[in-house]
Amino acid sequence: MPTEGSDRVALSLSGERLAAVYRIQAADQAEAVARARDICLEQTVELPDALIPNAAIREQIVGAVDGLAAAGDGAWDLSIRYPVEAAGGELTQLLNLLFGNVALQPGVRLMDFHLPEGLLGSIRGPRFGIAGLRDLLAVHDRPLLCTALKPMGLRPRALARLAYELALGGIDLIKDDHGLADQCFCPFDERVARCAEAVQRANGETGRHCLYLPNLTAPAHLVQARARAASAAGAGGALFCPGLAGLDAMRMLADDGGLDLPILSHPAFVGGLAVSPTAGLSHAVLYGRLNRLAGADAAIFPHLGGRFAFTEDDCREVRNGCIDAMGRLAPIFPVPAGGMTLARVRELCDFYGRDVMLLVGGDLHALAPGEDLVKRCRRFVALATGGSD
Amino acid sequence: MPTEGSDRVALSLSGERLAAVYRIQAADQAEAVARARDICLEQTVELPDALIPNAAIREQIVGAVDGLAAAGDGAWDLSIRYPVEAAGGELTQLLNLLFGNVALQPGVRLMDFHLPEGLLGSIRGPRFGIAGLRDLLAVHDRPLLCTALKPMGLRPRALARLAYELALGGIDLIKDDHGLADQCFCPFDERVARCAEAVQRANGETGRHCLYLPNLTAPAHLVQARARAASAAGAGGALFCPGLAGLDAMRMLADDGGLDLPILSHPAFVGGLAVSPTAGLSHAVLYGRLNRLAGADAAIFPHLGGRFAFTEDDCREVRNGCIDAMGRLAPIFPVPAGGMTLARVRELCDFYGRDVMLLVGGDLHALAPGEDLVKRCRRFVALATGGSD
Predict the structure, then answer these.
(1) SS3 assignment, position B147
(2) Is B129-384 assigned to CATH 3.20.20.110?
(3) Contact A88/B251, CB-based, under 8 Å?
């Protein structure tokens, strides 16, 4: 490749860098050093060092190792700094810079990342976050309570009746099950109109501010249209599955000032990205930080002991990814879910503290003798407010 | 949950089903049967059986086990049939139905899926496929040859000079490196205009039909605009990273009759989804079938022995996912890549046969004494045509 003389001096980058923190596997220090250098090249120029055409690119574009330390058992903690300009101000390319190609290599896991203030300042992030969502709901003194409209197969009218009773019982956020899309037996427009109306009617009776969050996970060319239709129909927020419809599609909704809807992110499809401890993304990044970057106000994930297999450490990591400092980006609600029951509400409150959104689905419908859905919801509220069962 | 009497008879589904094939882990037959039933519920109603509100939903919506057989070592092959209407005619919801929630569970891997003709008939899939891309390039007698414009950090003018030489040397498809987005040092519009012009100029000299494929991986609200700008500037195709920008965003480009561009899919970011043999998606599904469903005409993946860690079986699986029968959806080119060299061209041709697209990046720039880039490209062509080195 010819040396590009004019490029040598002309890159003129700011020198500002973002940092990616990886856990890599290597047999010894020499191998770890070589792998670290390979990742610096792989994530930027995708060329061996000898083929880099000029010094400006080698010095200003290629990632730079910022730290490498043995972490035991053949693992190494590696920090690499990349030029902020390489991310091009786009979330899609930022993801690529942090973990695009190395996602295909074994023994490299993205543990965390740190963006400089300048870059963070260009990212809106969560429109509401914990504080904004609490204000919207006028609930400041307890965990937020969420449930899902289900099952797939119920008609819009039946789902709306459920929504009405759930809102009457004191649930704060009622989301579509994420399997409700625009099926012939439950068309999006009719469902959203009926459910939004039902929740507003219940709010008129209770004086509360329950939000209905339809599922806006949709084909790429329909996401914005469904969001606008939902907003016009009186929906109070959005459920979105970035693993199905794209992380940046969620970012687009969060950035849309014409919508102004809080967003609840659902982790459908992406589980495999965190499942191997030596590959993929950490739970903090996948379920926490990326959702925040892309504007979610709350992030659903499977809590330990439910129908899924997260550990206590995994769950703590997600929580940290949701609330740890991240420049000016608001902290967001962790939403432990996946088979949670009323019997576990106190345990969940103890584990996550007050700033958690509790998502109980099926168990709200497992009525005790003499109980109806409204009563059972009130029991959920009482438990989350500190009452005993 | 109240029984919805009117829903009992009113679902009126066609009875047509799509099939998902999973590999699950279970200690014994009883556990396997229980897991199979749980997946049927998890992927549809997300409720325990006892809480399903009516018989119509239980019979028409819930998945049905179609086959369960021991596969050795605690693994079981499981086939589940879901109603086609549950997918709602949308790729996003189809992904969710096949693997949304169970992606978060350990010991469940999506191995394959089969869509009935009716559903496949509503999916356009690859606009060109192997035959269409060969016609476009007027190359029918050998593997197609692809390379990447790199590295990040070169200016549009320097990349265009490279593109000209690569086209002159006989490369069939010249793609942007997928790290080229819209960075300040290499703006999208200028790069695409210059590189498209350079390739067209070379085509004018050679009489060939080399295509330039800019990277259309972009923020959700910009994908269509960049695609139209690229098409207007004379680009001959698109590079797209569905893992970064969403699988359905690629489908949207493929379905866009106003574009009519072949699409090369790049696997950035998604590697972790296939890495565990007991979780995630099979290589055939992740790198082959999903790309085809979403309209890619060729799918890049890391070939064994390069900078990544695919096995021979993994690579064969990807190839099968690209070319095995899939209703009326065209077969597409497998594109083995990730550190391939001229020295391996014959081996790659032997492994994949003639219907392969060979992607050689950095090694095209590792010039031998007395060789220039044009000459080295001609050597690549000669090797792929059956010549020896």
Answers:
(1) strand
(2) yes
(3) no
